[in-house]
Amino acid sequence: MKQGNHGIERTWPRGPRKRAIIGIAAVCLLLAGLSPAEAIPLAFQLRPGHTYTFEVTSRLTSEFSVFENRHPLSTAATGTIAVKVLGARQGVFIIDLWEGENHCRRFLRPDGSVVGAPGEEARRLPFFWTLPTGDWQPGQKHRVTKGLVNDRQTIPATWELTLREFDAASGRARIEVAGNVAIPTDKQIQRSIDAKGTLFFNVREGCFDQGEWTLTYQLAYANKEIAVQRDLWKIQETRVIGFRLKEVTYE
Amino acid sequence: MNKVTRGADRLLAVVALVVWLPLLAAAQSADGIHTPFTIWLLNNESRVLELLATDRRLLDTMSMGNGMLLAPRPPWPKPENRFWRLHLKFLAYLTEANEVYRLARQFGSGELARLISAVHPGEWATLAFRGIPAYRACEIAPFLNDFCGKAYLAVLGLDPSRDADLAGRLNRATRKLTDTERRLLNNYFGNFLALYPTNRTTRRLYAFLQTGLGKQFVQGVASVLTAKPAGGGDDTGGLLAELASTAGEAASAPVDPALLSPEAIPADLGADAGPGSATGGQESAAEAAEVSGPQIDIFNIMGPEEAPAAKTP
Description:
The complex is a heterodimer of chains A (about 250) and B (about 325).
Chain A: H1 16-34, E1 40-41, E2 50-66, E3 69-89, E4 92-99, E5 102-108, E6 114-116, E7 135-136, E8 141-149, E9 154-167, E10 172-181, E11 189-202, E12 207-225, E13 228-250
Antiparallel strand pairs in A: 1-7, 2-3, 2-13, 3-4, 4-5, 5-6, 8-9, 9-10, 10-11, 11-12, 12-13
Chain B: H1 2-30, H2 35-61, H3 80-107, H4 111-118, H5 121-126, H6 134-156, H7 160-163, H8 166-175, H9 179-195, H10 200-211, H11 215-226, H12 236-246, H13 257-260, H14 278-289
Helix pairs in contact in B: 1-12, 3-8, 3-11, 4-11
């Protein structure tokens, strides 16, 4: 037996023992790799005095069909929207939105909710999604619900945002969005509104810098009399809406 | 005495027709065999228009979730408008078909033509021209006959230039639709009749559109438009004498009700459907088999019930 400083010589294990230790270490490393990524707080951080210029596109296809007759139509439009951040007071951003000569002003919270829109009819405002407050784990869903007031009833609608990944290098978070409107439906009138898409939140710019989602609408209209039901008309609409942050300027 | 009775009969028949036929024409112009079907189509259109309006508002609400941005609002295409325009063509076509059907049903029997031939309003009018020599009355009477005839046709809604050839009028209306459009209309009829198999009015309209108009009815209406008082000016003197002899008699003889009743008019005006034809027999069988369902207000466009009335206008 060899003797060292303390009379005992330490040697690295060999053979099967060594392989076991290496295996355990590899598993530990693997588990460390699979463990949840760092939670990210996402919130609007707009800079007062800056103007955020977005390009917004929309493509719509609509088809009306009756028996064997089908009539599709489509259109597309591209617009530029300039968002000027007028200020931030008490945690609310005051922004001016310009699209050509169309103008409106909104008060935006850091979570994306609009707390005021002077000049816009409240009931005609879009259903905006919001960001969760605090940390947001990748894979975690954030659900936003609202009752959309129709002529005679309130219809529940939902946006569901799921954080998929965060790229620390670019500072962008990829978020999947899905929406649904629970329109009343029955055997004669079947209809649905669904939305699905992807958004990118840029932490450095403090806002969404890109996104595209598709809205799908279907209406199948039939007549029913006692036990006889006959399909009559079908309408399908698809709206693809996208936006992209072109530039941020300071004036 | 026979002459007196015959004159009084004619007088009563003319008075009754003058009053009854325009009233009937006015009543039927508001409603027709196309009404249940067109109301059904319009009712469906109204419902879909309402659904689309509300649903597109919801779509607009979901079109922009980012509060920093505005929702794009280009003029969205509405492909359904093409079909609404097509339905307007259908409505115009069916209204025209209903008008042809009504004219053929009312005047296609030829009874009115025969009656007009037997009536001499000019002579009746000149009877009151006291102090005018008889030969002058004979000159005036034909002009009055023509005038009254044209006025009466106008009151009945008959236009010689338009209605002289009813089959042609129907064909012109039909030719305004393409094959595809006619196929679509037939599909609509198929749906309607599947939903409301006992609606004999629409079944009759559909059969009428399929078979067209019988020659005898076209000729019957044409004869009304070309009908002239029998004998014309040559017999005027004799007729005046006859009328003069009957003027003082009381017109108490009853009018033959068969002449005025709707049953005197053919039930089916299809090309293959003369009295006792196969189509007419089927129609009668269908009508006999009809069950009386709930009475539904067909004019209730937006009401909860959309079934057209089963009653015949």
